[in-house]
Design brief:
This protein is of the alpha/beta class. It folds into 2 domains: about 90 residues; about 150 residues, 3-Layer(aba) Sandwich (Rossmann fold), CATH 3.40.50.620. Helix content is about 50%, strand content about 10%. Helix 9 links the parallel strand 6 and strand 7. Helix 4 runs parallel beside helix 10. The termini are close together.
């Protein structure tokens, strides 16, 4: 990806991903209907409104997120709890790398920045793997493109979080990277200095396919250790009704689909 345009990523994703794009299309459809006197344009506006409304409904449903994760992303299977130690030994894993997933710049109850839900979920799983296997723990996360420049890095917040909970401390930390590509390059360079060539990579299941491609390009041997797969949360077909968590999950999955498309294009160019 062209790094000189990377600062535009937050703006572009906000406009392209739901609910931004469907809402813009609904606005455009409204303008076609009320501003045009031609029957053809009015009919087109009405059709566009219906399509946009249905799309927005689907984008706000957890069922859509589950479907897209399984069909479009196809993340690796999770490592069964009883298989962790033998699997790590078989793959000769030397370190566990956790990818940051964001930070809360203001956390009033702690008085300091705190890890986002995604980062905490990933780090909790990575720390449990480190405790179970005795392997060193690494965390990669600086300050993202959409974050305030003055806030604390994800790595610093991660180190404090582990200390507060009495969990294994970080052996390696990257606090400079701003995205997944930067995560891979920065942490790989740090690990290779100590002769580490084989890692277990921890991130969300939906993020794993793209993260794997970025880390494999560094010539590290990577064992995927995905966490937080999207599963059905409600019965009676309620997963297909609009909800806040449905929109959040669909947005996350579509962000990864868009990222994979951009990555493939960059690799083929």
């Amino acid at each position: 990806m062209l790094t000189e345009y990377a600062f535009l990523k937050p703006w572009l994703t906000t406009l392209v991903l739901p609910p931004g794009l469907p809402l813009l299309l609904i606005l455009f459809a409204y303008l076609l209907v009320v501003r045009s006197e031609r029957v053809l344009w009015t009919a087109l506006g009405k059709m566009l409104f219906v399509v946009s409304f249905v799309s927005l409904w689907l984008f706000c449903s957890h069922g859509t997120a589950m479907f897209l994760e399984r069909v479009a992303l196809r993340p690796p299977l999770p490592i069964e709890p009883q298989s962790v130690t033998p699997t790590f030994k078989l793959d000769q894993v030397q370190a566990i790398v956790v990818l940051g997933g964001g930070i809360q710049s203001v956390s009033r109850e702690y008085g300091k920045p705190a890890l986002s839900e995604s980062s905490a979920q990933r780090l909790h799983y990575g720390a449990s793997l480190a405790k179970q296997t005795g392997l060193p723990l690494a965390f990669s996360g600086g300050i993202g493109w959409s974050s305030a420049s003055e806030q604390e890095t994800e790595s610093a917040a991660a180190a404090r979080w582990l200390s507060q909970l009495g969990l294994p401390a970080l052996r390696y930390a990257d606090s400079q990277s701003k995205d997944t590509a930067g995560n891979a390059q920065a942490i790989a360079a740090a690990l290779k200095k100590d002769g580490i060539k084989s890692i277990a990579l921890v991130t969300h299941a939906s993020h794993m396919p793209r993260a794997l491609k970025e880390f494999e390009s560094t010539e590290l041997k990577v064992l995927p250790a995905p966490t937080h797969f999207l599963q059905s949360e409600q019965g009676l077909g309620l997963d297909w009704f609009p909800s806040g968590h449905g929109l959040r999950n669909t947005r996350r999955v579509m962000h990864e689909i868009l990222g994979m498309a951009i990555l493939r294009r960059a690799q083929n160019s």
